[in-house]
């Protein structure tokens, strides 16, 4: 296996050396044109035209890139300006009006652990809520499924924004359970 790799590397090195020799011979021939022959100057003219075309292309590409960068910067500045205007407008709307609602404690959220009554499950006599209502649907606690309640599940005291274990029921299922409870 190593012999194959070594032979491939040797062939590659030989090809690179041959290419370098050919390019240096070509450069020497182009550097010393024959002054008696007009055709000996044609490769030099072609190379000069090619170099000029490449320089023009590079210049056009850099101009295009600069224009794209300027466009992106202008767009970002405009977005920043629009965001700052929207922020200022929303700020002015908040400041307008009376502050009566602030003084009367309207719109404040109270801790529901202080205001909610302790409920006992009628099946197991444990301090859990069997089925509770929460908006369109309801919460069915993990202790039982026999009775219904209209109170939200209590919060877990050591975790913010979390409730006692149970599963969320869809609005249709919960309304059917409520209608069955009313029939009983």
From TrEMBL:
Cellular component annotations (GO), alphabetically ordered: nucleus
Keyword annotations: DNA-binding, Nucleus, Transcription, Transcription regulation
One BP term from GO: response to ethylene
MF GO annotations: DNA-binding transcription factor activity; sequence-specific DNA binding
Pfam families: GAGA_bind (PF06217)
Signal peptide interval: none
Segments crossing the lipid bilayer: none
Keyword field contains Transcription: yes
Keyword DNA-binding (UniProt): yes
Compartment(s) where it occurs, according to its Swiss-Prot or TrEMBL record: Nucleus
Role of this protein: Transcriptional regulator that specifically binds to GA-rich elements (GAGA-repeats) present in regulatory sequences of genes involved in developmental processes.
Family the UniProt entry places it in: Belongs to the BBR/BPC family.
Protein name, as recorded: GAGA-binding transcriptional activator
Species of provenance: Brassica oleracea var. oleracea
């Amino acid at each position: 296996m190593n012999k194959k790799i070594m032979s491939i590397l040797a062939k590659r090195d030989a090809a690179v050396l041959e290419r370098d020799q050919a390019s240096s011979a070509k450069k020497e021939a182009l550097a010393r044109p024959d002054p008696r022959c007009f055709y000996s100057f044609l490769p030099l003219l072609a190379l000069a035209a090619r170099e000029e075309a490449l320089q023009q292309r590079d210049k056009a590409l850099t101009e295009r890139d600069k224009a794209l960068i300027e466009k992106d910067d202008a767009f970002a500045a405009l977005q920043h300006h629009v965001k700052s205007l929207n922020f200022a407008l929303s700020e002015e709307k908040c400041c307008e009006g009376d502050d009566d609602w602030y003084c009367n404690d309207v719109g404040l959220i109270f801790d529901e652990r202080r205001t909610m009554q302790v409920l006992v499950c009628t099946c197991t006599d444990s301090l859990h809520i069997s089925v509770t209502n929460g908006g369109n649907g309801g919460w069915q606690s993990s202790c039982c499924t026999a009775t219904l309640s209209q109170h939200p599940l209590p919060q877990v005291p050591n975790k913010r924004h979390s409730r006692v274990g149970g599963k969320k029921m869809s609005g249709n299922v919960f309304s059917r359970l409520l209608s069955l409870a009313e029939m009983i």
